[in-house]
Specification:
This protein is mostly beta strands and about 220 residues long. The chain contains three helices and 14 strands.
Length: about 220
């Protein structure tokens, strides 16, 4: 019986992985989600000759719906705030580029010249991005045309609730055992450490003894970003 249920969980894994996308689309940072492309400039300043600027290549920056920022395959990694401020926290090129922050606004990513490098003579900057492709689900690049603001969403990764331990707890219609959620159809299995969750330590199998559904009610403000 449990073997059959485990197989059904594996087939249901796609549904489990779809849930984080539903949750993350409600983050305020989702308005910036997408791909930004542009160029990098370098400026070398030296006595007598002054400053010389030149192109130093291009970049592709990807922002997730949760605000995770990745520039050119891990060269710079960061988080984006709800206001579009980008704080660079690491990456393989952080030391060599000296770029530690950026801004996203009106569908553009940009940054002024960063740290002085090379004995205090060289700086790099991200020029204004020249294109923006919204992520599936509708990022607006900070353009202000996104959906409403969630005011009471909770427990998006199902961490709050009774401890399922190393197995799972089967919940039936009407159960509100998982904080913020109600089982609205069939049965679901609330899983602990029986397998690795995509986020946190708990997950949800939407096919318990039978196919199930869960729901949560929350409010939004029409037109707010």
């Amino acid at each position: 019986m449990k073997t059959t249920q485990l197989v059904s969980r594996l087939f249901c894994l796609g549904a489990l992985h779809a849930l984080p996308f539903l949750v993350t689309s409600l983050h305020a940072q989702a308005q910036f989600a997408g791909t930004y492309t542009g160029t990098i400039n370098t400026k070398v300043t030296a006595p007598v000759i002054g400053s010389i600027e030149s192109a130093a290549g291009g970049y592709i920056a990807v922002v997730s719906a949760t605000g995770a920022f990745d520039l050119s395959g891990g060269s710079l990694v960061s988080t984006v705030s709800a206001t579009g401020a980008v704080t660079i926290t690491g990456g393989t090129a952080l030391a060599s580029l000296g770029i530690r922050s950026a801004t996203i606004a009106n569908n553009q990513l940009s940054y002024a010249y960063g740290d002085l490098l090379g004995n205090g003579t060289t700086q790099f900057k991200l020029n204004n991005s020249t294109s923006f492709t919204a992520a599936p689900g509708g990022g607006t690049g900070g353009g202000g045309t996104g959906g409403g603001t969630v005011s009471a969403w909770q427990n998006g990764s199902f961490e709050g609730g009774p401890n399922p331990g190393a197995a799972w707890i089967t919940l039936s219609v009407g159960s509100a055992a998982i904080n913020g959620w109600t089982v609205t159809g069939g049965t679901v299995d609330y899983i602990g450490t029986a397998w690795s969750s995509s986020h946190g330590t708990r997950s949800l199998d939407l096919s318990g003894i039978s196919a199930g559904t869960v729901a949560q009610t929350f409010t939004t403000t029409v037109g707010a970003a």
